[in-house]
Amino acid sequence: MLDLRRGIGTHRPSVISLGQIWVDIMMNVDEVPAQGGFAVADHPKPSIGGSYRVLEAVSRMGVQAEHAGILGNGLWANFIRQSFQDNGITHIGQDRLDEDSGFRVVLNSGAPQKTFIASYGAEAHGGTDTFSMLEPQEHDVVHISGNTLMDHTATGVDGFLLKAGTDPSTRDYALVINPTNTLRLVNDHMLEDLVLARPIWSCNRQEAMTLAERLGAPIDDSKVTIGGGLDDFMHQLCDGLGATLRAPLVVRVGSLGAWVRMPGGDTTHIPGFPTKAVHTRSAGGCHTGVMCAMLARGHGLPEAVNIANAATSIAISRSVNGIPQCPEYDEAMTLLKK
C-alpha cells in the first residue's frame, strides 16, 4: 500500500528510519547525588535524541530523510515536530493523540559514563502494525536503531523484518541496523530475526564486541595493546563477526576511521580524518546517517563509509552543547578532495 505522505510521482531515494525519537535534557552537575541527596544543574540543555541525529545527517547530505516511528501530542512532540520542519525531515509514521513523546534526563558529572533517567512516551508504545503500511521503494535505505528493539514497538520492527525476508538480493532497497549500546538487552528472538534479515551492520567497536559475544563469534581481544595490535584485532573481529552474520559489517573506531567487511570478502580499513574533538556526545548518529545517505545516492559501502568518516571528523570539531554538528554534503566532499 502506498503511503500518501511520501508523495506520488518520480521517486527520490530516501532514508527511512524506524528508530525512536525523544527529547534529551542534558544537566551538568558536579557529581550525581546519592539517594536522598541534592545537586544543582548548570544550564539544562534540551535537544532531540534517539534516531534524530541520523535523520539530521541524512538531510544535510541532500537526501530525503523520513521518520517512520511514532510521534505523540504535547510539549515534547511539538519540539520534535518543529525540529523536523527546521531541518527538512518528514514524518511518515503514526501519530498518537493520547500521549506525548518521551524524554530523557542525562546527568553529566564529567565522569566517563553519564547517568540516564528515561520517561517513555508514544515512541515506545507501538504494536505489530506500527510499520505495516511502510513500502520501501527502489534504492531507499531503511534504518533500524537498537533503541527500537526493547519495548512494545519492537513487535512492529519484527513484523517489518519478517516481510523483508532473509535474502538481501531480493530487496530493491537497503537495510541498515545500528545496534547501539542497548544490544545486550535485546531478547534472543529479536536478535535472531535481525541476523536472519542480513542487513548492513553499522557498529562501534564496543557494540561489535557485544554482538560477537552474544552470537558466539570466535574473537580474541588479547592482542589489543596500548602500543599496537589494533589493526590485527580489528581484522579478526570483523572477519569472525562478519562470517557469523553473513552480512556486510562496518565497525567504527573514532578518529582511526572504520573497518569494512563484505560477505565472503576481506576486511578493509577506511582511514579516518583526525581532528580536534570538542564533543561530549556520540557522533555515531552522524556517521550512520551520512553512510545511509550515500548508499541512497548510489555509492558502494566502502565509499559511503569514507565520506561518513570525513563528515564525522568535521562534526566532532564543531559541537553545540557537546552535540556533534554534521556538516553539509559539499563541505564533507571538500575535505575528501584535500
TrEMBL record:
* Gene Ontology MF terms in the entry: kinase activity
Q: What cellular-component terms does GO give this entry?
A: cytosol
Looking up InterPro entries in the UniProt record yields: PfkB_dom, Ribokinase-like
The source's superkingdom equals: Bacteria
Carbohydrate kinase PfkB domain location, by residue? 14-319
Q: Which UniProt keywords apply?
A: Kinase, Transferase
UniProt name for this protein: PfkB domain-containing protein
**Organism, per UniProt?**
Bifidobacterium reuteri DSM 23975
